[in-house]
Task: inverse folding
């Protein structure tokens, strides 16, 4: 007997997880000058406040990155 392969093509869907038990969306900010990162929070105001404090303490630091952690889910369409 020779081995055989069976291929099955399926359609999958990918979307942000908005189920009640989904992990929360998390926000953080990172200074592009020194790489320092704010604490992560579910409320964007907290990382934003960190940026304002950080640039106040480091007047030459003007560039920042937003870091968003968003849960996603997949499922197979039937």
Result:
């Amino acid at each position: 007997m020779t081995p055989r392969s069976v291929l099955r093509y399926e359609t999958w869907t990918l979307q942000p997880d908005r189920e009640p038990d989904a992990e929360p969306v998390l926000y953080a900010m990172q200074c592009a000058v020194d790489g320092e990162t704010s604490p992560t929070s579910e409320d964007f105001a907290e990382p934003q406040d960190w940026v304002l404090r950080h640039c106040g303490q480091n007047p030459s630091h003007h560039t920042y990155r937003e870091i968003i952690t968003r849960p996603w889910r997949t499922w197979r369409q039937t």
Notes: The CA atoms of residues 26 and 42 lie 5 Å apart. The first helix runs from residue 45 to 57.
